[in-house]
Write a structure and sequence with these properties.
- The chain is an all-alpha fold.
- It has one domain (61-435).
- It contains 22 helices and no strands.
- The protein has helices at 3-19, 24-39, 43-57, 64-77, 80-91, 98-111, 117-134, 139-150, 160-169, 173-179, 181-201, 216-226, 228-242, 248-265, 271-305, 307-317, 322-337, 342-360, 364-378, 386-394, 401-424, 427-430.
- α6 (98-111) runs parallel beside α8 (139-150).
- It is globular and about 75 Å long.
Length: 438
């Protein structure tokens, strides 16, 4: 079969199954059954599909994913995360858009403790959105920062998606985790500048209100008690990797243990909350592993059918410049992000993008960070950005989906600006991970 027909058959079937509402994991399995029958020799191909499934989820490098997710779920389910955000709230003084700033700072702190963007957005939305709307904040300046900052959890370690991307793309997981720190902090800084500038020019967007101006110690004490110790978890995870003391899997395990110790120290430990945290972690982890299991065979079928090599040869034959091809790959990711989840985006594009990037001599670590930033943007990209629906779920009924879209739009533009900076200055992504001790 011609590679073009093979490509249309495989991708067309996959997208068609997704459009019908079939879960992504089962869509991959369905197209794999067809592909194994057509391209891998029928029954022999189906046997190979089963072997691939077992091998894909037996990969030890995927172990940090559930451990990083568990870190955030423990702090979320026990309520420690809410306490930390309230402590940050007490510390911020009178500034334009105060509560929006609290959401960015609080979300950035929680991003360093959670591998889940969903948990990050749910915490911020539940803790801050009702108070912001009650105080007269415009929905755009209330919801926008929460969604934008919630997705930063994908960049700042611990990041479950960075582990998945590094494992499948052959990029050092340790370096990819560390590489997200500067882009994540840069993203947060850009959001802060935008909020302060916009609320200074239009104070009606975030009406000022009287604060309980307690003593300086009364404002700083909650921060020192409930935030600074939690940052020790981030130091344990990142410091152990930077210092060459632990692998990503070991650092993830250390972070989970540190989260349990923190919960016990704050007196928030309970059997019910821990079981809930474990249950939620298991749900998300199983979903990811199912998609991985289906996508590994999908990649193999693409290669065996000739579709991967055919597309690569076509692109190489166009004699396009490296920058043009890079921008085209990122544009494809942005387009896919408007319609599917991030794990599916990785699984569909990696079989094409990684060989292409290697052929063009693109630094895979830098490219991996760019992919993470694009997928971070896609979390809030209409019409199907995942965090858009998380925000709609925690928002009051009178907030329409259109309101959520409008709130996300300015922050999408800001994130694209940061993406442009990373393209122009690759050292923003690669400098810090190159400091890791071997």
């Amino acid at each position: 079969m011609d590679w073009v027909l093979a490509l249309f058959l495989l991708l067309g079937t996959l997208i068609g199954l997704m459009v019908t509402g079939l879960p992504v994991a089962f869509a991959f399995i369905g197209v794999n059954v067809i592909g194994a029958t057509v391209f891998l020799g029928g029954e022999i191909g189906l046997d190979q599909m089963v072997r691939n499934t077992v091998a894909s989820v037996s990969n030890f490098s995927l172990a940090p994913i559930p451990l990083f997710l568990l870190m955030g779920e423990i702090l979320f389910q026990t309520g420690v995360a809410f306490t930390a955000i309230n402590a940050i709230d007490r510390l911020i003084a009178r500034v334009p858009g105060r509560l929006s700033i609290v959401s960015v700072l609080g979300g950035t702190v929680f991003s360093s403790l959670s591998g889940s963007t969903i948990a990050n957005t749910a915490v911020l939305g539940s803790a801050l959105l009702p108070d912001m709307l009650k105080r007269g904040y415009h929905p755009s300046i209330a919801m926008g920062p929460i969604m934008a900052t919630g997705s930063i959890a994908m960049l700042i370690p611990p990041s479950a998606l960075a582990v998945l991307l590094g494992s499948l793309a052959g990029i050092s997981i340790a370096k990819l985790l560390i590489a997200g720190i500067i882009p994540g902090l840069l993203m947060a800084a850009v959001f802060l500048v935008y909020i302060i500038t916009r609320c200074s020019l239009r104070p009606e967007l975030a009406p000022a209100y009287d604060l309980d101006m307690s003593t300086s110690w009364a404002r700083w004490k909650p921060f020192l008690v409930y935030v600074v110790p939690l940052l020790g978890i981030f130091v344990v995870v990142v410091g152990s990797i930077l210092g060459g003391l632990a692998t990503p899997t070991e650092s993830a395990a250390l972070g989970s243990v540190a989260s349990v110790i923190a919960v016990i120290a704050y007196g928030k430990f309970s059997t019910g909350s821990m079981l809930k945290a474990i249950s939620e972690t298991a749900k998300i982890s199983v979903m990811i592993l199912f998609i991985i299991a289906g996508s590994v065979t999908f990649s193999q079928i693409l290669a065996f059918s000739g579709a991967s090599n055919g597309l690569l040869n076509l692109i190489n034959g166009l004699d396009a410049g490296t920058v043009s091809v890079l921008l085209a790959m990122l544009a494809i990711l942005l387009l896919l992000g408007a319609f599917m989840d991030q794990v599916s985006m990785i699984m569909i594009t990696l079989p094409f993008f990684i060989p292409l990037a290697q052929t063009l001599g693109i630094d895979l670590l830098w490219f991996g960070v760019l992919m993470l930033v694009v997928m971070e943007i896609s979390f809030t990209t209409p019409p199907f950005g995942l965090l858009i629906f998380v925000m709609k779920g925690v928002a009051p009924p009178e907030i329409s989906l259109g309101d959520v879209y409008r709130a996300a739009f300015p922050f999408i533009l800001l994130a694209l600006t940061v993406l442009g900076l990373l393209i122009l200055i690759p050292d923003l992504a690669t400098w810090l991970p190159n400091l890791i001790r071997r």
